[in-house]
């Protein structure tokens, strides 16, 4: 039979999984070792120390052999009890899924949302904006009995390309003098968008391997705070596999209470070496620069960027709203079939109305320009009219705004 493998590299331009650097793939190909042996403890301690630096925390981080959804569940079941009121905020599809999970776990989540529909695009306003900390403060002030046990928000909403201001949410909780825990999903934010666990006073952060950490999917994280650990001692939702107590205890020696995902941890050690070696500041700056270049292209095309508030544009991905009548998924399929380029689909309430360009992890100026060229060729094939060339606009942007560190665009 003919080998149907496409020629050249696939362009994985979705906002996670992001492309995995060869260096990490090679690190993961080493033989699996005894997870109770002395060599393993060195690996365990190395990754636990390194991941804490990436979260910017001095407190424990739990690593699970699970996708991000597992770490979402872990966050909720460790600190909450049946029927607890939880305040969540609708920023898009992932906030909605976390809300649905809270319902399924027997919590009583309240879903705050910015109302209305945008007159230009017809998209829900809530799916074009970040968390409104003012609404959270108002709601917490009204909760005089302190029935609300946690505030849960998504840092980088992967379905929209909006990055919310987490420090502002912390200030809102403090201004309301409310004891609710702050829980943050930074699954697609960590190691791409600035995230500061301790400084921002986050109690539980949730993240995953397949985005800014440049690993394959399969491990996920809970970064904790002393208050979260304290709350976990009396919380009554059932928890066993996800329970932090045994994990944190075993992690002190570099081990886990069960068989961890050894080869992904090899990959994590390699990823952390790359990330910490380059420095978080440089990584955040390079994502901001890529994002600005891609937005320049979208503006040149004359299409709306899904994020309607420039203050919270995501450095990780850009949502591109297609003209009314152009099915974004048909366009994506055409681009995939013709150019072997994967773009992110519109999820939930924006299905078919937009696509997402990921610009995270192991990218550079040229891979992004090539991805934009794939989109632009797709527009031509599909007969989608554009105002000007986005590729040329992005090339001009990247040329005019050189990266601080050459070859690390
Ligand atoms: N939250 C956010 C912000 C995400 O982007 C994702 C996945 O893309 C998830 C949660 C769910 O994570 P997973 O698909 O790894 O279970």
What would CATH call the architecture of the largest domain?
3-Layer(aba) Sandwich
| Average pLDDT for all residues | 97
| Helix/strand order, N-terminal first | EHHEHEHEHEEEHEEEHHHHEHEEHH
Q: Describe the biggest sheet?
A: 7 strands, mixed
Strand content: 5-15%
* Small ligands present: pyridoxal-5'-phosphate
Radius of gyration: 21 Å
Q: In DSSP terms, counting alpha (H) and pi (I) runs of 4 or more, how many helices?
A: 13
In the CATH scheme, what's the topology name of the largest domain? Aspartate Aminotransferase, domain 2
Indicate the CATH class of the largest domain. Alpha Beta
Distance between the termini: 41 Å
- The CATH homologous superfamily name of the largest domain equals Type I PLP-dependent aspartate aminotransferase-like (Major domain)
User: How do the strands line up in the largest sheet?
Assistant: 2-10-9-8-5-3-4
Structural class estimated from helices and strands: alpha/beta
Shape: globular
How many domains make up the 3D coordinates?
A: 2
For the secondary structure, the number of strands is 13
Helix content: 40-55%
Low-confidence segments: none
């Amino acid at each position: 039979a003919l080998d149907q493998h496409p020629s050249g590299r696939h362009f994985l331009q979705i906002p996670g999984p992001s492309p995995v650097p060869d260096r990490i793939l090679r690190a993961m190909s080493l033989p699996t070792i005894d997870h109770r042996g002395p060599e393993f403890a060195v690996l365990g301690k190395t990754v636990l120390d390194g991941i804490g630096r990436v979260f910017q925390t001095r407190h424990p981080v739990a690593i699970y052999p699970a996708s991000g959804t597992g770490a979402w569940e872990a966050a909720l079941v460790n600190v909450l009890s049946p029927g607890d009121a939880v305040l969540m905020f609708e920023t898009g599809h992932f906030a909605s899924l976390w809300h649905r999970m809270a319902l399924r776990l027997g919590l009583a989540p309240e879903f705050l949302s910015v109302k209305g529909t945008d007159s230009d695009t017809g998209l829900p306003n809530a799916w074009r904006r970040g968390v409104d900390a003012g609404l959270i403060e108002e709601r917490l002030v009204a909760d005089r009995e302190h029935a609300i046990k946690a505030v849960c928000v998504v840092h980088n909403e992967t379905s929209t390309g909006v990055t919310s201001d987490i420090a502002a949410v912390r200030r809102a909780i403090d201004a309301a003098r409310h004891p609710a825990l702050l829980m943050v999903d930074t699954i697609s934010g960590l190691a791409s968008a600035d995230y500061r666990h301790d400084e921002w006073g986050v109690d539980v952060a949730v993240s995953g391997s397949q985005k800014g950490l440049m690993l394959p999917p399969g491990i996920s994280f809970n970064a904790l705070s002393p208050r979260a650990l304290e709350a976990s001692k009396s919380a009554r939702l059932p928890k066993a596999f996800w329970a932090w107590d045994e994990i944190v205890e075993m992690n002190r020696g570099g081990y886990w209470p069960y068989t961890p995902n050894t080869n992904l941890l090899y990959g994590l050690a390699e990823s952390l070496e790359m990330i910490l070696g380059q420095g978080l500041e440089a990584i955040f700056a390079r994502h901001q620069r890529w994002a600005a270049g891609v937005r320049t292209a979208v503006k040149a095309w004359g299409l709306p960027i899904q994020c309607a508030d420039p203050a919270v544009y995501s450095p990780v991905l850009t949502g591109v709203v297609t003209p009314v009548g152009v099915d974004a998924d048909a366009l994506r399929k055409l681009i995939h079939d013709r150019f072997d380029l994967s773009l992110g689909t519109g999820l939930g309430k924006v299905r078919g109305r937009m696509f997402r360009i990921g610009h995270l992890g192991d990218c550079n100026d040229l891979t992004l320009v090539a991805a934009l060229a794939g989109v632009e060729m797709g527009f031509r094939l599909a007969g989608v009219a554009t105002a000007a060339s986005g590729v040329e606009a992005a090339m001009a942007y990247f040329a005019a705004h050189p990266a601080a560190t050459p070859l690390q665009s």
